[in-house]
Amino acid sequence: MPPPFPLPVSVALPLAYWVHDLSPFLVRFGENVGLRYYGLAYLLGFAATVLLLCLYHRRDRSGLNPDAVIDLMLFLIIGVLAGGRLGYFVMYEPRALLTSPFAVFRVWEGGMASHGGFVGVSLAAWWFTHRRKLSFLRVSDLVVTTVPVGLFFGRIANFINGELWGKVTDVPWAVIFPLSAPPHTSPSLIEPRHPSQLYEAGLEGLVLFAYIQHRFWRNRVADTQPGRLSGEFLLAYALLRGLGEVFREPDAGLILGLSRGTFYSLFLAFAGALLIWNGAVCRSRGASLSL
Fold it and tell me: Where are the alpha helices (DSSP H) in the chain?
């Protein structure tokens, strides 16, 4: 039944969905200056990588001692930051890279690509192993076991920032992201969306971490099939990323009808399958690999 009298215009009806109002800053010193959750996510990811790699050494699962781990981390930090930043412009904003190349250095404006980060980490790991005359595939198998932790924290930071939101939906846990609409739009006029950042945190972070750690500790594939664990990581990430993209609003134009996240993941899947095949060949030949 309609109300017996019309509601005043000033009376706002309660919203059915939570309106995202989280601050991107953990500590803020000025309008755009402070410690951001996104930066904290990187710090936590790097710290987790160091702790895990040192744990592997203590458990006799890695030949990388703590000094070597710190050396490796210097390469990985440069690789993930440079690769992620350049990858974002190459994959998502190529025109901006040509018209305003110095935009790459305006990191406070955001813009990182996980696929570019993978390329940067791979190149950094290769350079590290080349300098120390170590097996690239063995070191890669160690590094990929730590990557899901960084992906998890990164996706949580995406959610806190209110960016990379999902598609419009009416599920009970949908979220209204103010940044998904023009500035100053009333929340009551903004369509609720999937919190796809949290879906991806669960898939790319928790699920992938559980799987890759199980394979590392229980199956010991890194000891018998060099590169296989790296291949499984890339293939699993591509599949889980594709699943997450189903709920995510594309943040750039489609390629062959696919979101860019899904399209670029196809290359990771191919590389992963190639590494798995290579590991199987090494095992069939009785090859062994040690640091």
Answer: 37-58, 66-91, 94-99, 114-132, 136-144, 147-161, 196-200, 208-214, 221-224, 228-245, 260-284
Which range marks the domain in which residue 36 is found?
18-218
- Contacts of 54-62 spanning 24+ positions with Cβ under 8 A: 56/142, 56/145, 61/216, 61/217, 61/222, 62/142, 62/291
Give me 228's structure tokens: 């296989």
* 191-219 residues labelled b (16+ CB within 10 A) or e (exposed): ebbbbbbbbbbebbbebbbeebeebbeee
Per the domain annotation, does 182 fall within a domain? yes
Tokens for 157? 């930071």
Q: What is the mean pLDDT of residues 118-136?
A: 97
Number of domains in the chain: 1
- Residue 28 CA to residue 48 CA, distance in Å, equals 25
How many angstroms separate the CA atoms of 64 and 50, rounded?
11
In a domain, 123, yes or no: yes
Domain-embedded: residue 24: yes
Longest dimension (CA), the chain: 84
pTM of the model: 0.90
pLDDT tens digit sequence for 30-74: 777 789 999 999 999 999 999 999 999 999 999 999 999 999 999
Is the backbone of residue 110 left (phi > 0), alpha (psi -120 to 50) or beta? left
pLDDT, position 105: 81
* pLDDT band for position 11 (cuts 50, 70, 90): very low
What does DSSP assign to residue 207? I
Cβ(233)–Cβ(241) below 8 Å? no
pLDDT in tens, 278-289: 877 776 766 544
Structure token digits, residue 251: 């943040």
Angle at 267 between CA 263 and CA 273, to 5 degrees: 130
* Residue 262 domain-assigned (yes or no): no
